[in-house]
């Protein structure tokens, strides 16, 4: 709620249910906002004497009428003038509540030197006091100082919103094991099994081992990206939070989408790094750094696609079905199960739109050089492998750029859709 830098903060019992130490910490943080020029108004139930010293002003209500409104320090003199002084070693807050509560009157107040304890007496005493006059002066001044319609309210800028949302996302990612920790273990174990199953395949050059290398790259580019559907339920849960907070005017769509995209990158990079280290050395494959780059870009783009699906569907089961179906179609069309020249013309468009096409192609171009020589009649050179897959005219850097653009495009569509949805134009 504080992201938009509101001038007035209204809180309903922020310390309710907290122990004394936690309540003190909350009020101290709120006090810092007051020091920065914010106005913080809150209701509080039985504040401790330590909390009471932090307040600047307070309003005491009894049966809907103002019994006191003014400074904390001035209240002592006011009630003393009404012959209702705060006893020594008594929490002033408790004393004031006792004074205005005539439902359960304490025995200690039934004394001759104590005035008639009625709501009317206390209220009338305040209405005739200097504190009441000061309250009306401040109210009149506040009414005259109200901003005109459309006048700037001094909200925080997009950069500040982005930083706050990024900090919150990083904390949420760290606290929720399902977002990255469980996936990290799952990816690491799978890649370790792959490395042990294909151990040393990159050092051998006969036809069967060349085919094994290609199969390994296909499986890696397909299934590791396919497992991105696991994050979709978390994205759908976050959408409901976003819509509520956006409709309350707490932040804009742009900083939210950018913060989500940026804060996802550290976890994705860690997953890509662990997978690369677990797989490439064991399998004796080439280009560890380039493989890491391609896998990182592919995972980032696939998560961006899951984010897009999450904002479009009402339930995560539908989203998982759509995401799994799309990835399954991409795996069919990426040019491995059927090479480019054998794909039916009515499905050739799937080859070009499939994210998996560019991930697999970049991995293969990283693994195979034109001048590589193999002990195979079918694939005697690296150039022959590229010609078989119709990759001879493709470039590793261009494919990486395409994968990167996929991620950007998905996030831009997410931004456009959330802007439309949060404005109620559905």
TrEMBL record:
The chain crosses the membrane at residues 180-202, 214-236, 256-279, 291-310, 316-339, 346-364, 401-418. It is found in: Membrane. One of its GO terms (molecular function) is ABC-type transporter activity. It is a multi-pass membrane protein. Pfam families: ABC2_membrane, ABC2_membrane_7. Residues 45-101 form the ABC transporter family G domain. GO terms for cellular component: membrane. Residues 160-367 form the ABC-2 type transporter transmembrane domain. Keywords: Membrane, Transmembrane, Transmembrane helix, Transport. Belongs to the ABC transporter superfamily. ABCG family. Eye pigment precursor importer (TC 3.A.1.204) subfamily. This is ABC-2 type transporter domain-containing protein. It comes from Pinguiococcus pyrenoidosus. The lineage of its organism: Eukaryota, Sar, Stramenopiles, Ochrophyta, Pinguiophyceae.
């Amino acid at each position: 709620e504080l992201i938009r830098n509101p001038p007035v903060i209204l809180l309903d019992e922020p310390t309710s249910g907290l122990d004394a130490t936690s309540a003190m910490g909350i009020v101290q943080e709120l006090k810092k906002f007051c020091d920065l020029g914010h106005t913080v108004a809150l209701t509080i139930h039985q504040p401790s004497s330590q909390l009471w010293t932090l307040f600047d002003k307070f309003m005491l209500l009894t049966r809907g009428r103002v019994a006191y409104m003014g400074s904390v320090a001035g209240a002592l003199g006011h009630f003393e003038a009404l012959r209702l002084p705060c006893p020594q070693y008594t929490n002033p807050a408790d004393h004031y509540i006792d004074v205005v509560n005539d439902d359960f009157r304490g025995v200690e107040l039934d004394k001759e030197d104590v005035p008639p304890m009625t709501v009317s007496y206390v209220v009338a005493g305040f209405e005739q006091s200097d504190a009441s006059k000061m309250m009306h002066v401040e109210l009149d001044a506040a009414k005259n100082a109200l901003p005109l319609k459309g006048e700037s309210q001094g909200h925080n800028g997009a950069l500040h919103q982005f930083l706050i949302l990024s900090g919150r996302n990083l904390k949420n990612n760290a606290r929720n094991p399902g977002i990255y920790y469980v996936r990290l273990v799952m990816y690491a174990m799978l890649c370790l099994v792959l490395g042990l199953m294909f151990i040393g395949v990159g050092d051998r050059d006969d036809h069967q081992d060349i085919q094994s290398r290609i199969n390994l790259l296909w499986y890696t580019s397909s299934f590791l990206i396919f497992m991105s559907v696991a994050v979709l339920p978390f994205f759908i849960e976050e959408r409901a939070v976003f819509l509520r907070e956006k409709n309350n005017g707490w932040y804009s769509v742009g900083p939210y989408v950018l913060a989500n995209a940026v804060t996802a990158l550290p976890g994705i990079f860690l997953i890509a790094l662990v997978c690369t280290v677990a797989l490439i050395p064991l399998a004796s494959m080439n280009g560890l750094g380039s493989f890491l780059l391609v896998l990182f870009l592919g995972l980032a783009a696939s998560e961006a696609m899951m984010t897009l699906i999450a904002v479009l569907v009402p339930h995560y089961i539908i989203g998982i079905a759509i995401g799994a179906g799309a990835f399954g179609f991409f795996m069919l069309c990426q040019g491995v199960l059927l090479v480019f020249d054998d794909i039916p013309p009515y499905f050739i468009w799937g080859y070009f739109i499939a994210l998996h096409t560019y991930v697999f192609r970049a991995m293969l171009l990283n693994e195979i050089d034109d001048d590589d020589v193999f002990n195979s009649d079918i694939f005697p050179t690296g150039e022959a492998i590229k010609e078989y897959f119709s990759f001879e005219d493709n470039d590793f850097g261009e494919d990486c750029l395409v994968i990167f653009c996929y991620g950007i495009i998905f996030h831009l569509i997410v931004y456009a859709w959330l802007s439309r949805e949060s404005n109620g134009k559905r």
